[in-house]
Write a structure and sequence with these properties.
The complex is a heterodimer of chains A (269) and B (323). With 269 residues, chain A is mostly helical. Chain A is 78% helix and 2% strand. Helices cover 54% and strands 16% of the residues of chain B. Chain B contains seven helices and eight strands, in the order ααββββββββααααα. In chain B, strand 5 and strand 6 form a beta hairpin. The chains are: A mainly alpha (269), B alpha/beta (323). At the A-B interface, helix 2, helix 3, helix 4 and helix 5 of A face helix 1 and helix 2 of B.
């Protein structure tokens, strides 16, 4: 009896799609699991609170000065470029609005998310991946998934997720405020007489939809930065790969890109 | 939920010890950090709400327009370049007009008067702008919920008209500057005129059309000059016409004196004739009375003859018999 087999490249594509779907499901499942545990009061006993505080403090305070200084420098350059260019074209009335929209609403939250992702999570996840030995049997897709216990979730994963999320939000908040102050100083200097007009411009930019979108985008960025690398680190692949990238970094950038694209679509389309 | 029985072989505490070094007063520092970030977020939200005018007391103004294109919620209403209001809502009225509901802070509402004019301008670049103009600031203030029609000025709408006008102007210009155009012909004529002006006989050639005619004109002028010289000699020269005329005038004066004496004599004759005429008129009056007497005598004679005729044998049959 003859059996028909599909061509090898179709089988490879099918396997890749299958693995991608399984990996995505694992990401969603782990994210839901972490959120539920994070919102549960039993996660915050006295002993665990110290752990969470330690992670939050070390993650945020370690990154905040460097990131704020770097953002201030880049913001200053961008603000100067935009303001001078706008003035040369006689469009200075739009410069401040453009600066606020580009820097505060778009660049700084994305930069904060990527900074935290590159600084702490990917390094941590790579180290964590080698520590757990409990793995589920290999599935048909060749994807093995580490199943964390409740104690692991409460004592190891949730503190790190909370710390990463808070770091992203803190960095985005502080840097955004810094950029707003720098934008005012770049245009009006130390004179207080530009404050009413500047306040009106800020009010014009931050209407309800934009403010809500800004908050939600920062929140989703922080969750993506905290959860996606963790989920990737809990996947062990049986297949051979030549990629030298950290596990989950491509997926993290893809998720960040999707969030940014969705935000832009909602805001401007 | 994962099964708690499936604990990892490594306890969680070992993981934490590996990653985090002990920090003094860690919980207090973390709480301070949380509070700082939370207060920054709240301050930012408060600033944005203040910038959006949430805490301001406002009064409402409704602007009516045929078209609300370009108008967005949150857009400013400006007065002398300063924003004094903000569009809160745009709605379609029952008569098909666009109603723009604008919030004007009460501290800025005194700039708007009952005589204020509102315009909506659409420029080539940038947003549509709503402006208020108050010419007479002593007029009564604009009441709350006042409705005003906004005047529209749309640069983009003017572009097709400007382009059409410009095209017509360019076509006219092209016609005017063409090789066969009237201006070119006029310029050619002007050039020939200036050439003639610069020619031998100058303006005379231009006025008469050719140099031959101009030459004839000059000859004629020379002849007239000669004629005038001769005439002057004949009229004003010695034994000229003027001398004879002078002598004639003297003779004429003597003749006039004689004529005057003759007229005085005629006056005397006429006076005598008037006396004769008066006498004749009186004689005519006596002749009238005489005539009346003669007529009366004749009438009496006639009556006597008639009486004699009626007597016999002179009587005649005067009866008329019909045939």
């Amino acid at each position: 009896m003859m059996t028909t087999r599909s061509p090898p490249f179709i089988e490879a594509w099918g396997l890749a799609v299958h693995r991608g779907l399984a990996s995505s499901w694992h990401l969603v499942h782990l994210g839901a699991l972490l959120l539920v545990v994070a919102l549960s009061p039993s996660t915050y006993p006295r002993s665990n609170r110290t752990t969470i505080s330690g992670h939050i403090y070390s993650n945020t305070v370690g990154a905040l000065p460097w990131f704020t200084a770097m953002t201030a420098l880049i913001s200053l350059v961008l603000i100067r470029v935009v303001v001078v260019t706008a003035q040369s074209y006689g469009l200075s009335q739009f410069a401040l609005e453009m600066v606020v929209r580009v820097l505060v609403l778009e660049l700084i939250p994305l930069s904060a998310a990527m900074f935290i992702a590159l600084r702490s999570n990917l390094v941590f996840n790579d180290a964590l991946n080698t520590r757990f030995s409990t793995r589920q049997p290999s599935s048909a897709t060749g994807l093995k998934v580490i199943t964390p216990t409740l104690t692991d979730l409460q004592c190891v994963w949730v503190p790190r997720v909370l710390a990463s999320s808070f770091s992203v939000m803190a960095l985005a908040t502080v840097s955004s405020l810094m950029a707003l102050v720098l934008a005012y100083l770049s245009v009006h200097g130390l004179s207080p007489w530009g404050l009413p007009g500047y306040t009106r411009t800020v009010g014009h930019v931050f209407d309800l939809a934009v403010t809500l979108g800004f908050g939600l985008k920062t929140l989703f960025f922080s969750l993506a930065v905290a959860i996606v690398p963790l989920a990737a680190s809990l996947e062990v692949r049986d297949w051979v790969t030549t990629s030298t990238l950290q596990p989950g970094i491509v997926r993290l950038f893809l998720v960040l890109l999707c969030i940014e694209a969705a935000s832009l679509s909602v805001k401007y389309i | 939920m994962p099964n708690p029985a499936n604990h990892p072989p490594h306890p969680p505490s070992s993981l934490i010890e590996d990653d985090a070094r002990p920090i003094a007063h860690i919980e207090r520092k973390a709480a301070l950090l949380l509070l700082t970030v939370a207060s920054l977020v709240l301050a930012f939200l408060g600033y944005v709400m203040y910038a959006r005018g949430v805490f301001e007391s406002t009064q409402q103004l409704v602007l009516l327009s045929d078209d609300s294109e370009g108008i967005m919620v949150g857009m400013d209403l400006t007065f002398s370049g300063f924003p004094i209001g903000r569009v809160r809502r745009i709605e379609l009225a029952s008569d098909g007009k666009a109603r723009m509901v604008i919030d004007v802070p009460r501290k800025d509402a005194h700039w708007l008067r009952t005589s204020s004019i509102f315009t909506m301008e659409r420029g080539m670049v940038g947003d549509t702008r709503i402006r208020a103009f108050s010419g007479i600031l002593t007029d009564p203030p604009l009441p709350e919920n006042a409705e005003r029609t906004v005047l529209r000025g749309d640069t983009n709408a003017e572009i097709p008209r400007i382009v059409a006008s410009t095209r017509a102007v360019l076509e006219n210009l092209e016609n005017m500057t063409g090789s066969e155009s009237s201006i070119n012909a006029s310029l050619k004529n002007l050039r020939s005129v200036t050439d003639k002006l610069n020619g031998r006989y100058g303006f005379l050639t231009v006025a008469l059309g050719s140099e031959d005619k101009a030459q004839k004109m000059i000859l004629m002028l020379d002849q007239i000059n000669g004629l005038l010289l001769k005439t002057d000699q004949r009229i004003y020269g010695p034994n000229g016409v003027m001398d004879g005329t002078q002598a004639s005038v003297a003779q004429l004066t003597g003749l006039l004196k004689d004529a005057r004496a003759s007229l005085l004599k005629i006056d005397g004759v006429l006076a005598e004739a008037q006396i004769v005429a008066t006498n004749a008129r009186m004689a005519s009056t006596d002749l009238g009375a005489l005539r009346a007497e003669v007529e009366l005598s004749l009438r009496k004679v006639g009556q006597l003859v008639d009486e004699v005729n009626r007597k016999w044998p002179f009587a005649r049959d005067v009866e008329i018999k019909l045939p």
